[in-house]
Amino acid sequence: MEELKANVESTEPSIYNDFSSGNPTKELPLWSNYKIVYQITESFIENNPDTTILEWTKLDANELVKDSKYSNLLE
Questions:
Q1: Which ranges constitute the DSSP H helices of the chain?
Q2: Which parts of this chain are annotated as the region Disordered (predicted)?
Q3: What domain count does the chain have?
Q4: Phi and psi of 54, rounded to 5°?
């Protein structure tokens, strides 16, 4: 999560590749981007059980993160 927080606003292809293809030197496993999004989404759902699937799938990514236990990523 530290690597994600350090690069949360990045649009660099190399950063994206690190998170999708993995980067052993940064201790990022393969498909980290999907694993992290899954954890954030699960946390959002736990914190907001009355939000429908349609509602949370239409949310802006920052809103989803803000209402999850990973809100510190936006600080």
A1: 2-6, 13-21, 32-47, 53-57, 61-66
A2: 1-20
A3: 1
A4: -60, -40
Whole domain around residue 46: which residue ranges?
Answer: 2-74
Q: Please name the residue that has the structure tokens 């649009």.
A: 11
Asked if 62 and 74 count as a contact pair (C-beta separation under 8 A), the reply is yes
**N- to C-terminal Cα distance for the chain?**
13
Token pair in block for residue 73: 């990523």
How far is the C-alpha of 54 from the C-alpha of 8, rounded, in Å?
A: 25
Tens digits of pLDDT across the chain (75 residues): 788 888 888 899 999 999 999 999 999 999 999 999 999 999 999 999 999 999 999 999 899 999 999 998 888
Instruction: Give the whole-angstrom CA distance, residue 16 versus residue 32.
Output: 10
